[in-house]
Design goal:
By secondary structure, the chain is of the alpha+beta class. The protein has 2 domains: about 5-75, Helix Hairpins (Orthogonal Bundle); about 110-269, no CATH class. It has helices at about 5-10, 15-30, 40-55, 55-70, 75-80, 90-105, 110-140, 225-240, 245-269; strands at about 140-150, 150-160, 165-170, 175-180, 190-195, 200-205, 215.
Length: about 270
């Protein structure tokens, strides 16, 4: 059996200094710069591999242990103590694990619920896709109301930890009702208002005869535009014909919650 010791032509009890001297001597004899012989080149590679292991004490110790195992007679290997038989508790545990693997994964306890209500969730998501299409149409289609008289002005206040007390006004005209934070027009003031045609979301406003200015951004087309976009994404996922029952139902519930948020801002805008 060829070993690294034989490759370096030293004994297995050789000292690190003896291994180093043998390596230097053999490398000088087999280096490719000194001899073009292919066999010498192969021996040069083997010498370097052997020295890389035997020059490091930890790696040499592991190599010696592996050599001892390889040289152990078969009788000694068979004389090792037998593996103890599993106890009754261990056998029961293995039996239960094997039975569980044969049965496969445990059934989902909510599978029946998902299968029952998933069609409703899918239909609701499809309805929300139609609603999103109406929002897009409403965003693009606007109407302008000329000389719209202010019929009533309601003053409201709300408090928050960040900004303290905030005052806003609910202004009603013959065709529209909207929230405004900046202006408190008197009853009878004539306004020019540009609003969406379907849902009446005010986009621009000014006193008649003046240039229209952008209305407050606290609308579904302003600061809260993420709500319609998220509704569109969730509805598209849940409305697919082959979507999983759990996904269709969860998307339907999510769309219902987003619809409540959107309707609230549409009503209060």
């Amino acid at each position: 059996m060829s070993t690294f010791y034989a490759t370096l032509e030293v004994s297995e009890q050789a000292t690190p200094e003896e291994i180093r001297r043998a390596y230097r001597r053999l490398v000088l004899l087999t280096h490719p710069d000194r001899t073009p012989d292919p066999a010498a080149h192969e021996r040069y590679l083997a010498i370097n591999a052997a020295y890389d292991v035997l020059s490091q004490p930890a790696r040499r110790q592991l190599y010696d242990a592996a050599l001892a195992i390889r040289r152990r007679p078969p009788e000694q290997a068979s004389a090792l103590p037998p593996t103890p038989a599993p106890t009754r508790a261990q056998a029961e545990v293995r039996h239960r694990r094997a039975a569980a693997r044969r049965r496969g994964p445990a059934p989902d306890p909510y599978a029946a619920l998902y299968a029952r209500y998933a069609p409703w969730g899918r239909r609701f998501c499809q309805l929300m896709l139609v609603f999103c299409a109406l929002l897009v149409l409403d965003f693009c289609w606007t109407r302008e109301y000329q000389r719209e008289p202010v019929q009533s002005v309601e003053r409201h206040s709300m408090s928050s930890r960040r900004s303290g007390s905030v005052t806003y006004y609910i202004i009603r005209t013959p065709h529209l009702s909207f929230r405004n934070y900046d202006y408190n027009w008197e009853v009878g003031t004539r306004l020019t208002i540009r609003a969406s045609a379907l849902f009446g979301q005010v986009r621009a406003i000014a006193v008649s005869g003046q240039m229209l200015e952008r209305a407050d951004e606290v609308t579904i087309y302003g600061n809260f535009v993420f709500a319609p976009l998220l509704l569109l994404l969730m509805a598209a996922l849940g409305a697919r014909k082959h979507s999983a029952p759990g996904l269709a139902l969860n998307c339907g519930v999510g769309c219902a919650l987003l619809l409540i948020v959107i309707l609230y801002f549409m009503r209060s805008a």
